[in-house]
Amino acid sequence: MNKEMLTGNGDPASIGLMKTKTTGLILTLCFFGATLCFGNDPQVDTAKLNESKSKLTAGKGNIKPTYISLVQFTDKGIQNAKETTQRVAAWAAKVRSMGVTIKQMYWTLGQYDQVCIFQAPDDETAASVLLAADMLGNVRTQTMRAFTASEMDKILAKVP
User: Fold this and answer.
1) Domain locations along the chain
2) In angstroms, what CA-CA distances link 82 with 32, 33, 76, 77, 149?
3) Each residue of 57-90: pLDDT tens digit?
4) What burial letters (b/e) apply to 90-102, b meaning 16+ CB within 10 Å?
5) β-bridge mates for residue 87, sequence order
6) Least buried of 65, 85, 104, 106, by fewest C-beta within 10 Å?
């Protein structure tokens, strides 16, 4: 299928619009996935935001950072697509010993093949487990650091 068939014409503006819409859809899926994953999490329940802040300061002093990875299969990964769920399970078990928790993994349609939501003790640990996954040759990742409402409040408090 060529770009003309997808956009209706070969106009660069139409192609740009399609890319913009695709990016918007991907971001929507990421936020939707995070909502599904953390919907029952008191840290992000905005209806109980003040209550959750007091719970965080009173009980859990050390919340793990959350990351959202957009994952694309490589040629090797797509050739072995039937093993993708087993590969994810094996990777999740391996990185658990490093303090990494896979909160949710979604297989998706579109530009990205998977969306992974996970927590790690710090950025360095997150980077090392992602690098290890990429080195296996089945996937390439783009990862974003995600912030809870409480974490965002701390960031906003530092804004001059």
Assistant:
1) 38-157
2) 26, 23, 12, 9, 38
3) 334 457 899 999 999 999 999 999 999 999 999 9
4) ebbeebeeeebeb
5) none
6) 85
